[in-house]
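Let's practice the habit of predicting before peeking. Look at the sequence and jot down your guess about where helices and strands might fall. Then scroll down.
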Amino acid sequence: MDLSDILGSVAMNSRAGITDLLKFASPGVIPGEKTTELHVTLNIDGDMVTFSGEEEQNGGIIRYNGSATKSFLKLDLNVALPENGFADTSWNLVPQKSVEPVYYVWKTSANPIWGSILVRAIFTAKVVDNKSIPQLLSAILKEVRFLPDGNIQAVYKNGIADAEWNDSDLNLAMYRMGEQENQIKLFLNLSQIMDTAMSVTTLSRASGISSVDIKELLKLIPMLSEGIPLYYEQDGNGGMKVYVGEDVLLPLLKAVKPLFEDEEFVNGLLEMLEAQAGDMASLVKALKPVLKSLPKVIDGTTEVKFGIMFTALQPSAETNILK
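Done guessing? Here is the structure:
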């Protein structure tokens, strides 16, 4: 029996199914640890049991305080990850007036330039309020902070017209240093993210979604508990690019490849892009052969990276803080 067929069918046809599937890939309470074992001393007072203490595990410090009765259990954790160069650092997007805040590489043996042409077209298209994706990113994302407890917190706006900046909730995204050099692992609380920001019902009804190769997407499920690998490169002057590579992007590209073999989907995508392209609408039609050839481009992909360009805000833009 192929469980991927069953899981894929459930996941794409109900919000509950996706939520249940994500439970199998929970990142755990502490990033990078599927289970955390605490050795506690219980203090019993009638029906109430309390416990508190501190443990060092895997180079990190866990401080805990809890209480329990027959009807409830309460546990508060304060976690400090092992010392790393990211903790207590803050980053701004690279100002768009100097360089676009997005970073990408797409090399393919099928047609060396078509991957880059397509990405460039996507990033220059006006998608919302006559703004491109890099412009939108610069308008709504101000700062990214890496906290000592493993949380990643963003300072953002709900909309480009808003004046107020907000701090993202904790426990939506967490990090830990990766096994490889210049690698961190990203842990996403997708159930919480979906509850607060994502309409799965809308997604499941999107045009062509049934053509997505679920088996390819299921290859990424273990990363939700083991961490999504991100890579970073510094320029020595306070600049840094953070990106995902082939290990994440190739399964995603292969999953959506069947969409671009569907004439109806390609035509619908072109119509959407043309409607948003403004003065460049006439150029969108030239993308059709690129989109139609995308399956071969994906099959021939030798290198692909997508990421964001940052500049250090804290402690200092002149310091190579991850050295």
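How did you do? Residues 1-19, 198-209 have pLDDT under 50 and may be disordered.
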